[in-house]
Every structure is written in C-alpha cells, then in structure tokens.
C-alpha cells in the first residue's frame, strides 16, 4: 500500500492553508508557490475537499480558502478520503469477490490492515500533525508563513 501524490499533496496543502489562514482566506496560488504543487492540481484537490465540507472558498479580490473546522477536528483520514484516495488495500475494494467472485483466502488479513490504516490516520488530527512537526510557530511579522515545501521534506 502506498499513498499517491493526491493524498500527500492534499495533506501538505491543508497544513499550508491552516498555517496561513489566520490572516484571511488563502489563495491556491500562494499554496502552489509555497509547496511547489501545480495550481491546476490544487484546484482539483480543493474542489473535492470543498465538496466534502473540509474547506470553503470565497471568490474575488481577497478571496481564497479557509478551513471549515478547527485543525483538531480534521483528521488526516478525512483529508485523504476527501480527495478519493483509497484506504482499502484489499484486491476487491472490500466487496469480498477477490477470487473469481468469491472471497480470497487472505481477504481477512488485508481487510484488517485496511481498517488499521484508516484507524491510524483517523487518529491523527491536522493540528496534532502540525504540532508534532513544529509547524505551529507562526511568524507574526509576515502575512505568509514560510512552510517547508515538499522538496524540503523528501
């Protein structure tokens, strides 16, 4: 099981958004510049996260995105699932028809692992992740926080 860039970029973008929204709505352009994620890719991710209710957006001058809930009430699983990243690692997507329409011999193992993965990510809030990473120290003198880019964390 490996999370694709969709899930990783969504989490990174949500961290950037949460760090910078204290000064009003955050533009996708600023997140794109901060994180080195293409603007068109962010637009797709944010449309899905907006549809799931994690964020809301405003148009026009001064527009951008804000979180709809406190960072401690948004789990990493919420973010990953919102962008259609599957957290089910069974071959059959949980339908139990893995082997010629029947449940395979190892289905229970992969199903339980999927549950564990979801539970792990559901147990970590966006706020907790930020605190663990030391990212909650926001610079007062700047509108934008210097958030490490994905390249800096690889």
Shape call: elongated
Helix content range: 40-55%
Strand elements, count: 2
* CATH first level of one domain: Mainly Alpha
Mean pLDDT: 85
First and last CA, distance: 19 Å
Description of the structure:
- There is one protein chain.
- It is elongated, with a radius of gyration of 17 Å.
- The two termini are 19 Å apart.
- The chain has helices spanning 5-20, 28-35, 39-51, 76-82, 107-122, 126-132, 150-153, and strands at residues 55-58, 64-67.
- It is 46% helix and 5% strand.
- The protein has a domain at 5-84 and 126-140: Winged helix-like DNA-binding domain superfamily/Winged helix DNA-binding domain (Arc Repressor Mutant, subunit A, Orthogonal Bundle).
- Strands 1-2 form a two-stranded antiparallel sheet.
- It is mainly α and 154 residues long.
- It has 7 helices and 2 strands, in the order αααββαααα.
- 26% of the residues are buried.
- Helix 1 (5-20) packs across helix 2 and helix 1 (5-20) crosses helix 4.
Give a quick rundown of the structure.
With 154 residues, the protein is mainly alpha-helical.
SSE inventory with pairings:
Blueprint: H1 5-20, H2 28-35, H3 39-51, E1 55-58, E2 64-67, H4 76-82, H5 107-122, H6 126-132, H7 150-153
Antiparallel strand pairs: 1-2
Helix pairs in contact: 1-2, 1-4
């Amino acid at each position: 099981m490996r999370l694709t860039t969709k899930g990783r970029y969504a989490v990174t973008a949500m961290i950037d958004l949460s760090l910078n929204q204290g000064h009003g709505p955050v533009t996708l352009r600023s997140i794109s510049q901060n994180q080195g994620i293409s603007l068109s890719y962010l637009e797709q991710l944010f449309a899905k996260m907006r549809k799931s209710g994690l964020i809301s957006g405003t148009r026009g001058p001064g527009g951008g995105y804000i979180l709809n809930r406190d960072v401690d009430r948004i789990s990493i699983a919420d973010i990953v699932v919102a962008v259609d990243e599957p957290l089910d690692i069974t071959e059959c997507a949980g339908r139990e028809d893995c082997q010629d329409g029947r449940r395979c011999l190892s289905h229970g193992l992969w199903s339980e692992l999927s549950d564990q993965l979801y539970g792990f990510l559901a147990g970590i809030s966006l706020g907790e992740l930020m605190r663990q990473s030391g990212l909650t120290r926001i610079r007062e003198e700047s509108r934008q926080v210097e958030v490490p880019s994905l390249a800096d964390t690889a």
